[in-house]
Design a protein that fits this description.
globular; Rossmann fold; 3 strands; 3 helices; alpha/beta; three-stranded parallel beta sheet
Length: 74
């Protein structure tokens, strides 16, 4: 069974290395931050990451996650 972490690791190890990853949630973006730290890729300098949903998770990451929040209620 393919886990999310395995999929992210595979993506980060793919040649050529991705310059940016757009995720479907801020939680997935946090997993990308963690996976990128293992091969010592710096978020912002070596890899751009964007989240989606504008959650508090993004504000806790270093550097702060670029995220998109759509005000669906409006």
């Amino acid at each position: 069974m393919l886990t999310i972490q395995h999929a992210i690791d595979t993506l980060l190890d793919h040649a050529p290395k991705p310059a940016a990853i757009i995720t479907g949630s801020d939680v997935l973006a946090a997993a990308v931050y963690a996976a990128a730290a293992r091969p010592q890729r710096r978020i912002g300098d070596d890899l751009a990451v964007t989240g989606f949903d504008g959650s508090a998770v993004g504000r806790l990451l270093i550097p702060t996650l670029t995220t998109l929040a759509i005000p669906a209620a409006r």
